[in-house]
Amino acid sequence: xxEGGQRRPRLDVAVLAxxxxxxxxxxxRPLSDADLGSHLLETGRGRFALRPEPQRSELELKREAxxxxxxxxxxxxxxxxLADRAGRFWIDWEGAKFTLxxxxxxxxxxxxxxxxxxxxxxxxxxxxxxxxxRAYRRGSELRYAPERSWxxxxxxxxxxxxxxxxxxxxxxxxxxxxxDALDPKLPRGPIVGxxxxxxxxxxxxxxxxxxxxxxxxxxxxxxxxxxxxxxFCYADGRFHLPPFEAIVAPYDRTRxxxxxxxxxxxxxxxxxxFRYAALSLRKFVxxxxxxxxxxxxxxxIDRLTVLRRERDGGLDPLLRTMAIGYDYRRxxxxxxxxxxxxxxxxxS
Length: 348
Description:
The protein has ten helices and twelve strands. It is α+β, with helices and mostly antiparallel strands. Strands 1-2-3-5-4 form a five-stranded antiparallel sheet. Strands 6-8-9 form a three-stranded antiparallel sheet, with helices on one face. It starts with 12 loop residues before the first helix and ends in a 9-residue tail after the last helix.
């Protein structure tokens, strides 16, 4: 029985696997890496993970499978489910849904943001995702639209504790500023979105699996980079240049940032911090004001104060690097225009 008194489905892994044509199962054991699935199946065709999909509709699973298979066909290390004999990407078993996923032949390591080589791999992976996924045209930008963050904050604003009046004024001012400052014409398409370390698996300093790629995670590509910088380049009350360079430089080598993106980078950092502040505020309010969640919210406010230049926090070296990137891209554009033949010129 579960906590609600309902009977849990009795999982017969062999029967479930037979629906996917895996008749020769050599070994079954629980998976220690719960993000990959609940059970590991070792078969004559390789290693597979069986993954429960609670509270997921068939339409959601179908759309995600379509997107993830598209990514994999283009060479991106997504984690798509296998189709069963009926062509479905899931199976119902005693009222529960499960998907089956092929695992690489060797064990994978988890992402460690304290390691520079892992940050480099992340930058390369984000750029590869953006260049690969931009051809996928289905999906909505609603989830990561700025208006969604404005609405979320407006709903929570009056529930903030009275001692957060100064923070409330800061967020009010930031929302007004960003509403006018964000560039709606930046290159955009599918994005990774939430960049928690649990979504990435690596081997030999290369990302081998990216979990949870969704077609409805869409927005400016630069938002992924801004999220990565806010999450992994800020510690002890300040931003740090080495992890910033470890992420951004390989990204720019793999997918060159445009002039507009270099110019918009500071504002996207501010929007990213505002969005995470609003999300952490919601968790704090819904928890009944747990102290740990309030601390998380205040950490995002600390980032915003640095990004707004209200206190020193290591931002200047990052801004200088962005300015260098902007100037170099502008120089490249000028050189390209100089080499272009005059309009109407006829080649010999």
